[in-house]
Design brief:
Elements: E1 3-9, H1 14-22, E2 28-34, E3 53-56, H2 63-73, E4 77-79, H3 82-89, H4 91-100, E5 109-111, H5 114-123, E6 128-132, E7 142-144, H6 147-160, E8 168-172, E9 178-186, E10 188-196, E11 211-214, H7 219-232, E12 235-244, E13 247-254, H8 260-266, H9 270-282
Length: 283
């Protein structure tokens, strides 16, 4: 029996193509369903009829959790779970959840207004990073090196941001231009790669084309990954780590991770790992 899975995403990128190609070897059929064409709300979820499960890879930081919640309410198996996606979509909620679970995260302040922002500047030492609570791929993440620049940057947040776009985190600049992306499938750390910023861009993000190399799966990394999975539940995650003088901390967890750069750096067969995981759950 072939299990039918809808990969719900806004487009078919390299990762989705590799997942679709790897599926038959694991008794699966994966088909793309555009996340803009679902019209969910009917308890029977007719737009997802005929699928045994949904693999949610929407890159929107508002659609994913909503789609997962309504699909689960219609009785459809969703990977990752609505709980995990809602938690990952909101950086403040994620950090609060991980901190409560004993998983190390960076110090941060939530800025919802200019007084919030000014107090964060007074409490934390420059340089600082300002980032949106909702967002990814390094977009709108700003390095603040001096108070005058910080005040000017917040003018743009205050004047041009709309509603949730004004919700930001202020945090110390850590990592020294490098981060470690851990690709997790189920509970297994499938691959880990270090990304380093290059050229004039200080951000270390695979989407920005930074350099990368494979890194060992050392006990500290494995312990943190286990803590993240204990909190969110088994699933498919990109866990981003920064190194600090006190050890590794979790910067972000991506619920629909890109893995092309990690695959290139490590040689890991991520699509097959995902296929095996789906097979174990569904076949």
């Amino acid at each position: 029996m072939t299990v039918a899975i809808a990969v719900v995403a806004d487009r078919i990128a390299w990762e989705e193509r590799r997942l679709i190609e790897a599926a038959p070897a694991h008794g699966l059929r994966i088909e793309w369903v555009n996340d803009e064409s679902l019209s969910l709300g009917d308890p029977s979820a007719p737009s997802l009829a005929g699928y045994d499960a949904v693999l949610l890879r929407s890159r929107s930081y508002t659609r994913g959790g909503l789609i997962a919640t309504l699909a689960e309410a219609a009785g459809i198996r969703v990977l990752n779970s609505a709980h995990a996606i809602h938690t990952c979509e909101n950086k403040a909620v994620l950090r609060a959840a991980l901190r409560r679970a004993g998983v190390p995260v960076p110090d941060f302040r939530l800025a919802l207004s200019r007084p919030d922002f000014e107090r964060a500047l007074a409490e934390l030492e420059l340089p600082l990073v300002l980032k949106p609570v909702f967002g990814g791929m390094g977009k709108r993440v700003t390095l603040l090196r001096d108070p005058d620049l910080a005040a000017s940057v917040y003018d743009y947040v205050e004047d041009l941001g709309h509603a949730f776009e004004q919700a930001c985190l202020v945090e110390p600049y850590i990592g020294g231009g490098t981060s470690v992306r851990c690709l997790v499938v189920g509970r297994e750390l499938v691959a880990a790669a270090e990304f380093a910023s290059g050229g004039t861009d200080w951000r270390n993000n695979a989407a920005l084309g930074n350099s990368s190399r494979a890194v060992a799966h050392d006990p500290d990394v494995l312990k943190i990954v286990d803590g993240v999975v204990d909190e969110l539940g088994p699933g498919i995650y990109g866990v981003d780590l920064f190194a600090t003088p006190d050890g590794l901390v979790v910067n972000e967890v991506n619920h629909a991770p890109a893995f092309r750069a990690v695959t290139s750096a490590t040689g890991a067969d991520v699509p097959s790992a995902v296929g095996r995981y789906l097979q174990e759950l569904l076949v």
